[in-house]
C-alpha cells in the first residue's frame, strides 16, 4: 500500500469507509437481533403524572407501593424515589416471570439500576418510568440511585429480592413484601 | 476520472529549499508509513469491536429481556 | 482546476451520501416504528395499531408487554400539595398573622419560644413546615389532643398568615457556654449519614439551604424533648404524616440512644 499519490490515498480512504460501514452494520444487526428474538427494547414509556400531587393519586399513594400480582397474573412493582430513599426500600419479585417495575418521583430527577441485570432507567418528575424484565438469578440485588439527586444521594439505595417462583407467595390481596415472606 | 493533486493545497505550501531531507528519501518513507498506521488502526478498532461483541454476547444477552 | 469543476467532481459523492443517509433514516423509521412493534406486539397479544402507537410514544407502555393498570384509591399521608401559588403566599408578615399567633402564646411562648420543652419552638421555623403541620392537624393526618382542635378552627388563609408570622420571628438564643461537648458519632450521622444502613445524612435535608423537600423543618434551636419525642413517634409509626415515609424510614433505623444524642445535638448546637 502506498500513499504517494492522491489516487492511492483515496483508495485507502474508501477501503476504510467500507470497513466502518461494515462494523456499524454488524452492530446494528446485533441490536435488531436482540429486538426481534429477545424482545430487548430501550425502556421507553411516555406516561405523565403530576409530581405535586403524586402522593394524592391512587396509584403511587403510599399504601399501593411495592409488589402486587394483578389481573392476568401480571406482577407489578411500584416504587417511589424521593429525596433520599426509595419507598419501599425492599421489593420482592419472583424469578423467571415477567415483572413490571413502575417508578415515579415527587421531587427531583433520580435514576435506578439493578445490579447484574439490564434494568436501568431514569426517574423524571412528571413521568412514570417503566421497565419490564425477567429476573433469572435469585437473591438480594442492590438497586442504587444512579443520578445525583442531592446531598443524600450516596445513601439512597434499595433492595430487589428475587425469590424462586414457588417461594413467591403473595397475600390474598395480591401483595407481596419483603417483611411478610 | 483521474485526480490530480489538489491545486489549493500545493499553492499554499511553498517548497522548502532549506530542508535537509531530499525528495527521494521522503518518497521512500511515504511508501512505508500507511501500512503501519493501518495496522495500528485495524488493531485498535478490532479490539474495541471485539470488546463490544464480548460484552454483548456474554453479558448483555444472558441478562435477559428488558423493555 | 476551477471551483465549478471541483463541484462537478463532488456531485456524485454528495448525491450518494444523501441517498445513503435518507435510506438509513427510512429503514430505521420503518423497522423501529412499524416492523418491530408489530412483531413484538403480536407475541404480547396487542393489535398492530396499539403496538405502533406505543413504539412511537403516543400511548404509554411497551409494545412487547401488556400495560399494567391500577384501580388503587388514594390514602394520602397528607393533603398538602405544594404548588408555586401556595409557596408565593408565604410572603410578608401581616397584622392578621400576629393576631392569630396570640392564640399560640400559652404553649409556644410569647415570641414563639416555648417555655415547656415538650412543645416546639416556632420562632424562625420555616413557613412551609409550619403550614404543612397545621394543615395536617386540620385534615387529621397528624393527631394531637390540643392542636387538632385549634387547627380545625383555622381557615387555610389563616394558617398561611400564622406560619409566615412565626417564620419571620427571631430564633431562640443559645448560650454558647452551655453547649454540649462535641459528639463525634452524632456529627458523623448529621453530616455523612450511614451508607451501610441506608441512612442519609440529616444535613442532606435539614441542613441550611440543603435543597431537600420543601416542608423540611429547621432543627437547630429546637427543644430537645420535643425532637426526641417526634423521632420516637416516627420510629413507632405513631406519627405518619411524612410524605413517602421520609422520616419514618430514617427513624426506624436509629437506636434509642442515637435519638437522644441527635436531639441533644440539635437543641444545643448553634449552627446547622
What does it look like?
Chain B: Keywords: Membrane, Transmembrane, Transmembrane helix. Chain B: The chain crosses the membrane at residues 37-61. Chain A: This is Cytochrome C oxidase subunit II. The complex is a heterotrimer of chains A (181), B (67) and C (272). By secondary structure, chain A is α+β, with helices and mostly antiparallel strands. Chain A folds into 2 domains: 1-40; 51-176, Immunoglobulin-like (Sandwich). Chain A contains 1 helix and 11 strands; from the N terminus they run αβββββββββββ. In chain A, a hairpin with a 6-residue loop joins strand 6 (110-113) and strand 7. Chain A is elongated and about 80 Å long. Chain A starts with 5 loop residues before the first helix and ends in a 5-residue tail after the last strand. Chain B has a domain at 28-66. Chain B is built from 2 helices and no strands. Chain B has helices spanning 7-12, 23-60. With 272 residues, chain C is mostly helical. Chains A and C meet through helix 1, strand 2 and strand 5 of A and helix 1 and helix 10 of C.
Total helices of chain C: the number is 13
Number of strands of chain C: 0
CATH class of the largest domain in chain C: Mainly Alpha
CATH superfamily of the largest domain in chain C: Cytochrome c-like domain
Shape of chain B: rod-shaped
Q: State the order of secondary-structure elements of chain B, H for helix, E for strand.
A: HH
Largest sheet of chain C: none
Q: Quick one: which chains have the greatest interface?
A: A-C, 51 and 50 residues
Could you give a short description of this structure?
Chain B contains two helices and no strands. With 67 residues, chain B is mainly alpha-helical.
Entry keywords:
heterotrimer, A: 181 residues, alpha+beta, Immunoglobulin-like, 2 domains, 6-stranded mixed beta sheet, 3-stranded mixed beta sheet, B: 67 residues, mainly alpha, 2 helices, rod-shaped
Amino acid at each position: 500500500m502506498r500513499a504517494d499519490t492522491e489516487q492511492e490515498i483515496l483508495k485507502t480512504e474508501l477501503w476504510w469507509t467500507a470497513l466502518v460501514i461494515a462494523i456499524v452494520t454488524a452492530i446494528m444487526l446485533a441490536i435488531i437481533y436482540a429486538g426481534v428474538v429477545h424482545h430487548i427494547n430501550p425502556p421507553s414509556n411516555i406516561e405523565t403524572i403530576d409530581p405535586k400531587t403524586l402522593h394524592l393519586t391512587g396509584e403511587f399513594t403510599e399504601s399501593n407501593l411495592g409488589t402486587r400480582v394483578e389481573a392476568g397474573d401480571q406482577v407489578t412493582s411500584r416504587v417511589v424515589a424521593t429525596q433520599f430513599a426509595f419507598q419501599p426500600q425492599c421489593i420482592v419479585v419472583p424469578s423467571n416471570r415477567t415483572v413490571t417495575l413502575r417508578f415515579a418521583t415527587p421531587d427531583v430527577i433520580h435514576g435506578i439500576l439493578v445490579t447484574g441485570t439490564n434494568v436501568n432507567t431514569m426517574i423524571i418528575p412528571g413521568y412514570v418510568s417503566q421497565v419490564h424484565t425477567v429476573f433469572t438469578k435469585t437473591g438480594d440485588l442492590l438497586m442504587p440511585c444512579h443520578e445525583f439527586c442531592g446531598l443524600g444521594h450516596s445513601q439512597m439505595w434499595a433492595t430487589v429480592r428475587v425469590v424462586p417462583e414457588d417461594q413467591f407467595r403473595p397475600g390474598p390481596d395480591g401483595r407481596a413484601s419483603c417483611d411478610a415472606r | 476520472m483521474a485526480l490530480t493533486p489538489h491545486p489549493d493545497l500545493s499553492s499554499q505550501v511553498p517548497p522548502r529549499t532549506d530542508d535537509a531531507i531530499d525528495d527521494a528519501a521522503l518518497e521512500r518513507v511515504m511508501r512505508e508509513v500507511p501500512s503501519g498506521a493501518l495496522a495500528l488502526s485495524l488493531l485498535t478498532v478490532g479490539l474495541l469491536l471485539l470488546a463490544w461483541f464480548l460484552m454483548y454476547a456474554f453479558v448483555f444477552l444472558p441478562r435477559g429481556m428488558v423493555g | 482546476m476551477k471551483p465549478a469543476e471541483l463541484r462537478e467532481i463532488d456531485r456524485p459523492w454528495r448525491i450518494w451520501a444523501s441517498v445513503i443517509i435518507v435510506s438509513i433514516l427510512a429503514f430505521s423509521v420503518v423497522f423501529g416504528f412499524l416492523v418491530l412493534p408489530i412483531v413484538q406486539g403480536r407475541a404480547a397479544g396487542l393489535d398492530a395499531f396499539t403496538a405502533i402507537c406505543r413504539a412511537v410514544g403516543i400511548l404509554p407502555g411497551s409494545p412487547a408487554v401488556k400495560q399494567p393498570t391500577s384501580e388503587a384509591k388514594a390514602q394520602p399521608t397528607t393533603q398538602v400539595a405544594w404548588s408555586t401559588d401556595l409557596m408565593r403566599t408565604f410572603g410578608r408578615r401581616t397584622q392578621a398573622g400576629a393576631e392569630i399567633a396570640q392564640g399560640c402564646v400559652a404553649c409556644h411562648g410569647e415570641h414563639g419560644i416555648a417555655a415547656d420543652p415538650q412543645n416546639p419552638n416556632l420562632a424562625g421555623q420555616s413557613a412551609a413546615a409550619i403550614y404543612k403541620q397545621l394543615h395536617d392537624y386540620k385534615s387529621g393526618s397528624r393527631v394531637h389532643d390540643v392542636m387538632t382542635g385549634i387547627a380545625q378552627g383555622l381557615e387555610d388563609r389563616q394558617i398561611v398568615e400564622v406560619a409566615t408570622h412565626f417564620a419571620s420571628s427571631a430564633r431562640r438564643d443559645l448560650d454558647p457556654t452551655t453547649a454540649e461537648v462535641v459528639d463525634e458519632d452524632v456529627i458523623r450521622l448529621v453530616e455523612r449519614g450511614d451508607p451501610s444502613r441506608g441512612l442519609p445524612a440529616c444535613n442532606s435535608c435539614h441542613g441550611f439551604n440543603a435543597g431537600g423537600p420543601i416542608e423540611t423543618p429547621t432543627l437547630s434551636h429546637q427543644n430537645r424533648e420535643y425532637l426526641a419525642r417526634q423521632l420516637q413517634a416516627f420510629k413507632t409509626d405513631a406519627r405518619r404524616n411524612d410524605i413517602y415515609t421520609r422520616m419514618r424510614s430514617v427513624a426506624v433505623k436509629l437506636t434509642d440512644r442515637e435519638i437522644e444524642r441527635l436531639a441533644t445535638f440539635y437543641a444545643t448546637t448553634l449552627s446547622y
